[in-house]
Design a protein that fits this description.
Distance between the termini: 17 Å
Number of strands: 12
CATH class of the largest domain: Alpha Beta
Helix content: 25-40%
CATH superfamily of the largest domain: Glycerate kinase, MOFRL-like N-terminal domain
Shape: globular
CATH architecture of the largest domain: 3-Layer(aba) Sandwich
Strand order of the largest sheet: 3-2-1-4-5-6
Number of helices: 16
């Protein structure tokens, strides 16, 4: 089996993981209309908002359907009949998202007793619907988010801070919906599927506190860089996020773990012996990549055959330079470098990709590297070590034709990592 076949198989397995997180099918499968309500309003936000809203509309009788809004990233924005669709920016918020969040808040407040608000939540919802507290401007909240993204903060840490600067997050949306009923269908992009973390838990009670948010900013050494208004608000705020929310129900309709399982099944159908690698994958992308290489080398010592190491998760990147890329591209480039360093056995292909099709601030979903990647970069006159140090994995992978380009997928359940290895003889 040649490297090109391995690459094709890896991409096929990756798409199987994406298909398992199809938001339209997820809503169709999990939304059962058995509520005795006078009207149903739809509030959808996240990268899968349009697909989820479409499925919900097809289930809800026209006589019951009330107002409907879908807020998604610009790449996934499509026109929908009877749905107010608003495009906004991700991962950094923008004014369009701010105005959309205000519209959502108004819809929530207008819902009446005896009505149901169906909230359809998917990854990216936090950034797409920014509604800062009155004491903080949108620009100041963007600055704070940017600081956390650049210092390698986890999604849980970022969302904790966001919750305490928001009028929707941390259960506040459900609070606005009352006294109407709230039912949320949630497509998880968070490892462990903690509903209070996904899209910053707009309909879920929040256990974190203002003190936690302050501690995170200080622990990440960005407290002094945060806007003064943010620091003052976090230190002086009195009214905590909701700790108990009544009249609200939730259903998890898709997750990274479900996508990993789908990827495993396809790899097995292609004839690979599957090895489930360290799940969920997290940590600094370049360090995780090196650990992955070492683990694979150890696991395959004195073995032959076709092997698939499959996992998923969400790594982080601490910015050291000013290059272009994302955590998946950085992991792919670092993997290729580590594979050369440790002389990884056999013919191999490694794929790391975001299920949303967008990795960092780039048009790529991630990277697909193999035995030949570094030589192709050398032939192109690229210093891949220097580019990695400058967080410029996009330029490096583009030079060797190793970018994973899917376009926006319409869903988001974090990342998938797939390593395929063919070993002809025992080593």
């Amino acid at each position: 089996m040649n490297v090109e076949t391995l690459r094709e198989n890896a991409i096929q397995i990756f798409y199987a993981g994406i298909a398992a997180a199809n938001p339209y099918e997820a809503v169709k499968k999990h939304f059962v209309l058995n509520e005795n309500v006078s009207k149903i309003h739809i509030i959808a936000f996240g990268k899968a908002a349009c697909a989820m809203a479409t499925a919900a509309q097809e289930i809800i009788p026209a006589t019951l359907l009330g107002d409907a809004i879908a807020v998604t990233n610009y790449e996934n924005q499509i026109a929908l009949e009877n749905v107010e669709v608003i495009g906004a920016s991700h991962p950094l918020p923008d004014l369009a998202g701010f105005n959309a969040a205000k519209r959502i808040a108004q819809m929530a407040k207008n819902a009446k007793s005896g009505e149901l608000v169906l909230v359809l939540i998917s990854g990216g919802g936090s950034a797409l619907c920014p509604y800062p507290v009155d004491a903080i401007t949108l620009e100041e909240k963007i600055t704070t988010t940017n600081l956390l993204l650049a210092c390698g903060a986890t999604i849980r840490e970022i969302n904790c801070v966001r919750k305490h600067l928001s009028q929707l997050k941390g259960g506040n949306l459900a609070k606005l919906i009352a006294p109407a009923k709230c039912h949320a269908l949630i497509l998880s992009d968070v490892l462990g599927d903690d509903l209070s973390v996904i899209a910053s838990g707009t309909t879920v009670p929040d256990e974190s506190t203002f003190a936690d948010a302050v501690m995170i900013l200080k622990a990440k050494n960005v407290w002094n860089d945060a806007p003064q208004s943010v620091r003052l608000y976090l230190e002086q705020a009195i009214l905590e996020t909701p700790k108990i929310i009544e009249n609200t129900t939730h259903v998890l309709v898709g997750s990274n773990a479900m996508s990993v399982e789908a990827a495993v099944k396809v790899a097995q159908s292609l004839g690979y012996e599957v090895i489930r690698y360290d799940y969920p994958l997290c940590g600094e992308a370049r360090d995780v990549a090196e650990d992955f290489v070492v683990a694979a080398q150890r696991a395959l010592k004195n073995r032959s055959g076709r092997f698939a190491f499959i996992t998923g998760g969400e790594t982080t990147v601490t910015l050291r330079g000013n290059g272009k890329g994302g955590r998946n591209q950085e992991m792919a480039l670092a993997f290729a470098i580590a594979a050369k360093k440790y002389e990884l056995t056999g013919e191999w292909t490694f794929l790391s990709g975001g299920t949303d099709g967008i990795d960092g601030v780039s048009p790529a979903a991630g990277g697909v590297v193999d035995n030949n990647t570094l030589q192709h970069m050398k032939n192109a006159g690229v210093d891949f070590i220097a580019l990695l140090e400058n967080n410029d994995s996009y330029t490096a992978l583009k030079s060797s034709n190793n970018l994973l380009m899917t376009g926006a997928t319409g869903t988001n359940v974090a990342d998938l990592q797939i390593l395929l290895i063919q070993i002809e003889t025992n080593s």
